[in-house]
Design a protein that fits this description.
By secondary structure, the chain is an alpha+beta fold. It has 2 domains: 12-163, 434 Repressor (Amino-terminal Domain), CATH 1.10.260.40; 185-270. It contains 8 helices and 9 strands. It has helices at residues 12-22, 27-34, 38-46, 55-68, 73-83, 117-128, 130-134, 143-183, and strands at residues 186-192, 196-202, 207-214, 219-224, 227-231, 240-244, 247-249, 258-262, 269-270. The strands form 2 sheets. A 5-stranded antiparallel beta sheet has the order 3-2-5-8-9, with no helix packed on it. Helix 4 packs antiparallel against helix 5 (73-83). The radius of gyration is 24 Å and the shape is elongated. The N and C termini lie far apart (53 Å). 22% of the residues are buried.
Length: 279
């Protein structure tokens, strides 16, 4: 498996993972905010380049992820461009291409079977018009190149929309926190990723979620002065996203039944002897 970071130079995956960890950002939250599938984010952090679709996507994903984490994206992309090709295993070469180009055969490589004239012409055009390829002006020699161009454009458009949306989301979270402080309440949100059994009570004992198995896509939101959140069958952090006053909250990794008390202005507090059901 080809990995970067051997010898001198920036360890791309380590820089990404440390930045995400410092910010307390779950990788599923990063997936939601970048619109990049979680397996590709994990591949970037592990420097497992063979998992990524091709160099064009790898650089686009790397740039978007680095910008989300507040890193210098161009430095990491330059490091990827300069160092990755030399560290790949020969049986599955990954050519470090430009944003509009996916994995194409390198000049001199023989494809299995007979030569395809169109492929040879494409290689010659890439070599002769390398400068234009950098700025995305090289036209594809088949439908695949046009699809690559559109995919790169969509990725860049998503990145721009994300950059515009983040300030608005920060303002909304700040407003949630300020309103909750004024009312001395907690605004609790629960978004389910995979089946999980949940019991949710208010501080007065009102049953809000009655020990149900919630299915993926379920979204619940409540505002109360206090909550008790129970998981009668235990949980995995990947099964749901919990937000308090607009901020995503990370619960500890536990095994078995668990319950948490949630109060204004405080992190969820684990209860030592959790109930296993709802009243």
């Amino acid at each position: 498996m080809a990995r970067n970071g051997e010898g001198d130079g920036v360890r791309i995956g380590e820089v990404l993972k440390q930045a995400r960890t410092r910010q307390g950002l779950e990788i599923r939250e990063a997936e939601a905010r970048t619109k990049i599938r979680i397996k590709y984010l994990r591949a970037l952090e592990a420097e497992d380049w063979e998992v990524l679709p091709n160099p064009a996507y790898a650089k686009g994903f790397l740039r978007t992820y680095a910008q989300l984490l507040g890193l210098d994206a161009e430095v990491l992309v330059d490091e990827f461009r300069l160092r990755v090709a030399g560290s790949l295993e020969p049986e599955n070469p990954l050519r470090v291409g430009e944003p509009v180009l996916e994995a194409r055969r390198r000049p001199g490589d023989r494809p299995p079977g007979r030569f395809r004239p169109a492929a040879l012409v494409a290689v010659g055009l890439v070599a002769a018009l390398g400068v234009l390829a950098v700025i995305g002006l090289v036209g594809g020699d088949d439908d695949g190149d046009e699809r690559e161009r559109r995919a790169a454009a969509r990725l860049e458009a998503k990145r721009e929309r994300l950059a515009e949306r983040r300030p608005r989301e920060r303002r909304e979270r700040r407003q949630h926190r300020e309103q909750a402080r004024e009312e001395n309440t907690v605004d609790l949100g629960l978004q389910v990723e995979s089946d999980v059994q949940v019991c949710l009570l208010s501080g007065s004992g009102e049953v809000l979620i009655a020990s149900q198995v919630l299915s993926p896509g379920t979204e619940e939101r409540f505002k109360r002065k206090r909550f008790e959140l129970r998981f009668p069958s235990g949980y995995d952090r990947g099964q749901f996203r919990l937000s308090l006053d607009g901020d995503v909250m990370r619960l500890p990794e536990l095994s078995g039944a668990a319950a948490f008390a949630i109060e204004p202005g405080a992190r969820p507090r684990q209860l030592d002897a959790p109930e296993t059901g709802c009243p």
